[in-house]
Amino acid sequence: MSNLEQTLSIIKPDAVERNLDNEIKDMFKNNGFKIVKEKKIQIEKFEAEKFYKVHETKPFYNDLCTYLSSGPIVVMILEKENAILANRDLMGATNPKDATDGTIRKKYGISIDKNSVHGSDSYENSKIEIDFFFKD
Ligand code: CDP
Ligand code: MG
Fold first, then answer.
1. Domain 4-134 in this protein, CATH class
2. Residue 136 pLDDT more than 80?
3. Is residue 103 within 6 Å of ligand 1 at its C-beta?
4. What pLDDT score does 1 carry?
């Protein structure tokens, strides 16, 4: 049965700063993702706080929000069969040290905080996150 999904992807400041956005976009395309919408933006810290609200009780929350708002990011809607899980697989583990070969975080991630990409982790969150950046 077909299950075409959309998911939200973010190329984070560490990767955009190193001009890796086109290489990372090619990885998505080469793995069968269609980039339905994309924009390069910089967000304010209060917006990062809203985006990452699920993590507000975590010790890394403040640094995470400072970081995500520290420079330009590329936000994209990716489309593919089972896109949410497929994107999580292509991203690799949160900590690049634990990411397996062939994943984006293994190839480009610097550290657990500067791990180059974000991807929605569930169907429900994909809807919320796509709306967050592309509701107009
Ligand atoms: O991004 P992912 O869904 O893989 O991980 P998360 O657990 O939802 O955490 C969100 C983001 O917080 C991560 O991608 C990291 O950038 C950051 N983080 C961190 O800086 N330190 C941690 N111990 C855990 C996460
Ligand atoms: Mg997450």
1. alpha beta
2. no
3. no
4. 85
Whether 64 is in the pocket of ligand 1, judged by its Cβ within 6 Å, is yes
**Half-sphere exposure of residue 15: CA atoms within 13 angstroms, side-chain side:** 28
Task: Indicate the burial class of 100 (C-beta count within 10 angstroms; 0-12, 13-18, 19 or more).
Answer: exposed
pLDDT in tens, 68-107: 999 999 999 999 999 999 999 999 999 999 999 999 999 9
What residue owns the CA closest to ligand 1's atom 17?
A: 113
Is residue 87 a contact partner of residue 121, using CB atoms and an 8 Å limit?
no
- Determine the longest span between alpha carbons in the chain, in angstroms: 42
Q: What is the mean pLDDT of residues 105-113?
A: 98
